[in-house]
Write a structure and sequence with these properties.
Number of helices: 2
Helix content: 55-70%
Oligomer: single chain
Shape: flat
């Protein structure tokens, strides 16, 4: 049962690859750059701080 499910999923993925195509780029090459502003930096810093907090809590419990 497990192998037949994996085979079916792999078969669907391989068949789907031939159907999927990337959309054309509406902008000329070298179009306007995507800005990475302070919001993304704050999210990364908050995620890192949360990870450190959880690691310390886990370390203290053990």
């Amino acid at each position: 049962m497990k192998y037949s499910t994996l085979f079916f999923i792999a078969f669907l993925i391989l068949c789907g690859v031939s159907v999927l195509y990337a959309q054309p780029n509406p902008q000329p090459p070298g179009g306007p750059p995507t800005p990475i502003d302070g919001g993304l930096t704050l999210l990364l810093a908050a995620g890192g701080a949360y990870g450190v907090k959880k690691y310390r809590e886990f370390k203290n419990e053990a």
